[in-house]
Amino acid sequence: MKQILAIMAIATMAGMMVGAASINNLATGSDAKSIFKANKCDKCHTVESQGVERNGAPPPGKTPPDLSGVGLKHNADWIKGWLMKEEELNGKKHLKKWTGSDDDLATVSKWLAAQKKK
Q1: Cβ neighbour number for residue 65 with a 10 Å cutoff
Q2: In a domain, 118, yes or no
Q3: What CA–CA distances, in Å, run from 112 to 3, 9, 13, 89, 115?
């Protein structure tokens, strides 16, 4: 009986560690960061908290925001809608509609929602 309890305790702790690692990976997700860059989001946007620098010239007369704190205001579902031009912010829609896969959109949206640095 003690062995079963010990195994259950170890399994529970392992699960908690995996969960904590998943939350950390969500915020720093290298997969999401590479998807963000592959879809040229860094052409306009920075995510300074994650070391993502602008890799292009933003549209003339516009300064797209750094997305390090976007998760403080918006959740993944809203971000997904914004990137699909289904949501508005201050009466405007995102400049470019997402053209990547649905899975990549979900990954990037969750990653951006996890960005909560001011």
Answers
A1: 10
A2: no
A3: 43, 34, 28, 16, 5
Query: What length does the chain have?
Result: 118
> In whole angstroms, what is the distance from residue 28 CA to residue 65 CA?
19
Number of folded domains in the chain? 1
**Spatial separation of the C-alpha atoms in residues 26 and 49, rounded to whole Å:** 13
* Residue pLDDT, tens place only, 44-75: 999 999 999 999 988 888 889 999 999 999 99
Could you report how far apart the first and last alpha carbons of the chain are, in Å?
50
pTM: 0.74
Domain range spanning residue 29? 2-113
- What's the CATH code of the domain at 24? 1.10.760
Enter the tokens of residue 94.
Answer: 């995102």
